[in-house]
Amino acid sequence: MTGRLLSTVTVGRWMSPEELQKMRDTGKVVQSTTGTTHVGYPANIDAFGKQAKPGTVYIEFDVPEKSLIKTNDEWAKIVGPDSLEGRLAKRKGLPVPEMPEVANIEIKAQKTTEGIMTVCKK
């Protein structure tokens, strides 16, 4: 690290409690099974909320802006070493993308069988 502050942005993602714990433990975005982790950008609790499974939590967190690849007006992706882009970079001898560090992890909501329940901060 050069000591310079990276420009960060807030993104959101519905995830399992296990993924949240892994993110907290490692301090990094958790790579999905495909190597590409999709996030709401800008953060939006309604993004994918209807499809989120009961038991998942909606988290907002900060990542370096340069780690995002915008996919449309409401979404971005973060590519990791096991993504198509990462595997191609490795094959070509180029730098392989790493999962970025996270900051300011906040639980904003939880999905239950009754629907989405927001978390209030006191």
TrEMBL record:
Descriptive protein name: Photorhabdus luminescens subsp. laumondii TTO1 complete genome segment 11/17
Lineage: Bacteria, Pseudomonadati, Pseudomonadota, Gammaproteobacteria, Enterobacterales
InterPro entries to which the protein is assigned, alphabetical: TreTu_C
Organism: Photorhabdus laumondii subsp. laumondii (strain DSM 15139 / CIP 105565 / TT01) (Photorhabdus luminescens subsp. laumondii)
Ranges where the TreTu toxin C-terminal domain occurs: 8-106
